[in-house]
Amino acid sequence: MAKKARPNRIGVKGWWTGGKYGVEKKAYFLHRLTGLIIVFYLIAHIIHQGPWIAWWELIVVLAFIYHAMNGIRLIITELGFGVGRPTLPSFPYVPESLVKTRPLFWILMAFSAIYIVLAIVGFAKGG
Amino acid sequence: MKESILWLFQIVTGILIFVLLGLHISAQHLGTFGSFPDLSSFAYKTLLFVALYHGLFGLRSVLLEINLGRGAEKAISWLLFLGGLVFFIYYGIMA
After folding, report:
1. Quick one: pLDDT at residue B29?
2. What does the alpha-carbon distance between residue A75 and residue A82 come to, in Å, rounded to a whole number?
3. Which of A56, A103, A31, A27 lies closest to B10, judged by CA?
4. Average model confidence (pLDDT) across chain A
5. Is B51:B41 a contact under the CB 8 Å cutoff?
6. What is the DSSP letter of A1?
7. How far apart are CA A99 and CA B20, in angstroms?
8. Given CB atoms, is B86 within the 8 Å cutoff of chain A?
9. CA distances (Å), A119 to each of A37, A43, A116, B34, in order?
């Protein structure tokens, strides 16, 4: 077998375990997981547009809500809003940009929780 | 195409999906909370296009991160691009 150009020693396991990161690492893992759920549903949904098993549709809606809310945070952070000015690294090397954007993370997770409750209630009522 | 441009499209399509799919899901599943009109034909096709781009580019990012080698990465990129194109033409334009 040919040697890989860039070895990736941790592999897929690294989605959850790699590095000493905060809650954002878990958010990243969930973003990836929900993204994969949505993309496979999307392909199936385009091909077969009839009614789906309700609980499966609910899972996809919940995945979409989380993915959208976390995605908003990623876009805001990506564009450099709210990450603060660059500062000199000083002990104990707390990643300030993460600390400064963490309130945004929790606000969006709160919105995510509210929408998830609404979606579950909507489904329970037969929506 | 430059990766930075592809990534910019990923952000733009993400925002469009947030609006369009939000409306689509509200119309389909939140009927108990009020009446939500579903998407027009043009908006639906736009949603199909941006969702395919966003989803397949995301899938490509996940697959390329596994580091399968240059040849496999190129094959994956072309396969997803052509697959998405065929899907959009067949289900978005011809349907």
Report:
1. 65
2. 11
3. A31
4. 85
5. no
6. -
7. 32
8. no
9. 17, 22, 5, 13
Amino acid, res. A125? K
Domains identified in chain B, total number: 1
Instruction: Give the pLDDT band of residue B17 (cuts 50, 70, 90).
Output: very high
Specify the residue for token string 């300030």. A96
Best of A42, A57, A59, A78 to disrupt the B interface by mutation (most B CBs within 10 Å)? Answer: A42
Residue B61 pLDDT > 80: yes
Q: What is the largest CA-CA distance in chain B?
A: 52
The confidence score (pLDDT) of residue A64 equals: 92
Question: Token pair 């993460």 is at which residue?
Answer: A98
| Structure ipTM | 0.84
Both tokens assigned to A64: 């979409």
Domain range for B17: 3-94
pLDDT digits (tens, 9 = 90+) for A43-86: 988 888 766 677 888 899 899 999 999 999 999 999 989 888 88
Residue, of A16 and A80, whose pLDDT is higher: A80
* Interchain CB distance below 8 Å, A8 and B32: no
Residue of B91, B63, B65 whose CA lies nearest to B75? B63
